[in-house]
Amino acid sequence: MIEAGIIGGAGYTAGELIRILLRHPEVNINFVYSTSQPGKPVANVHQDLLGETDLQFSGEINKEVDVVFLCLGHGNSVKFLSENKFSEKTKIVDLSTDYRMSREDHSFVYGLPEFNIEAIKMANFVANPGCFATAISIAILPLAKENLLKEDIHINAVTGATGAGTSLSETTHFTWRDNNFSAYKSFEHQHLNELTQSVKNFQPKHDAEINFIPNRGNFSRGIHATAYTKFSGSLEEAREIYQEAYKDAAFTFVTDEALHLKQVVNTNKGLVRLQKFGDKLLITSIIDNLLKGASGQAVQNMNLMFGLEETAGLHLKATYF
User: Fold this and answer.
1) Which E.C. number(s) belong to this protein (predicted)?
2) Residue 191 sits in which domain range?
3) Residue 102 resides in a domain
4) Would you state the pLDDT for residue 164?
């Protein structure tokens, strides 16, 4: 069995990881580390796990585990790893932004399996993509891969309240979020950096604008993204490009049907739909921000790193009604 540790165990992404790993056929949860909840039952915080596990939050770390998931706030993973050294055999999956940008000062591989699967299989350290970045990447990277992003890209995406994490703020309170909708960080969201990096990895000379408007929705989980750009080919040609890009993908699928979030919430799936309007190609993509956009993709990456079946532990069912 793979011995796993979770750092930052009280948050939403850690809760999703615990739910997945408790049912994973090849994994044992060795510890769930939390500075705010040490000694308390995990089910006190992740209350749906009552009766499913006797795990308690730990104030100590086992540095000999096989894999560690970092579920820390952005900026805290670098600090944590500078203060805590794991064994040479320990693989690390970081769910924060800290290691997503390629730099010489770290050896983390960007963990988007649809486009980086072979590097992930060989990696000891993986930077899990951001939720918006995942949804938008599966929408536009097939075009970049074929050097077909010639014009500006316009993206509008809405995420559920869980995308903001468990810490309360003015815009996460129920009374503010309910019956409400708003844009935020227009043209400057932090996921733009990794999205631009991914596009340039495939299309180095891409210099058109990537215009991204993120929005807050009044629902708990899921991301619905639309992107459009000029495309000189036909809809059939676009479909062929996307079908080829995802022919071996374990969780990303192309469909002609209209998309809505209930198709993917509580699953690790990404769905993509293509439409042509004049000279513009409209790409719609949907994911669950906590699963394909975070913890589910983290387990998908772990499976690849350990040579397991990519879908192991991830046969999750959408809650449709």
Assistant:
1) 1.2.1.38
2) 131-287
3) yes
4) 47
What are the C-alpha distances in Å from 133 to residues 29, 36, 136, 258, 308? 28, 29, 5, 22, 25
CATH number for the domain spanning 119: value is 3.40.50.720
Question: How distant, in Å, are the alpha carbons of 19, 24, 122, 178, 302 from that of 2?
Answer: 16, 10, 17, 41, 10
Residue 34 zone, left/alpha/beta (φ > 0; ψ -120 to 50; rest): beta
Beta bridge partners of 210: 153
Torsion sign over Cα 14, 19, 25, 30: positive
- Supply the DSSP symbol for 56: B
Nearest to 86 by CA among 36, 124, 53, 49: 124
- Let me know: does 313 contact 23? Beta carbons within 8 Å: yes
A 10 A CB-CB count for 86 gives: 18
Task: Please indicate whether residue 71 is annotated as part of the active site.
Answer: no
Q: Catalytic residue, from 131, 139, 281, 291: name it.
A: 131
In eight-state DSSP terms, residue 84 is -
* Residue 173, pLDDT score: 58
Task: Please give the distance of CA 19 from its chain centroid, rounded to a whole number.
Answer: 16
pLDDT mean by block of 10 residues, the chain; 321 residues: 96 95 98 93 94 95 98 93 96 97 92 98 98 97 96 95 55 62 79 91 93 88 97 97 98 97 96 98 97 98 98 85 66
Do residues 283 and 142 share a domain? yes
Q: Are strands 210-216 and 182-183 parallel, antiparallel or unpaired?
A: antiparallel
Ranges of beta strands (E only) in the chain are 2-7, 27-33, 57-58, 67-70, 91-94, 109-110, 125-127, 153-159, 182-183, 210-216, 223-230, 252-255, 270-277, 280-287
Q: Is residue 321 included in any domain, yes or no?
A: no
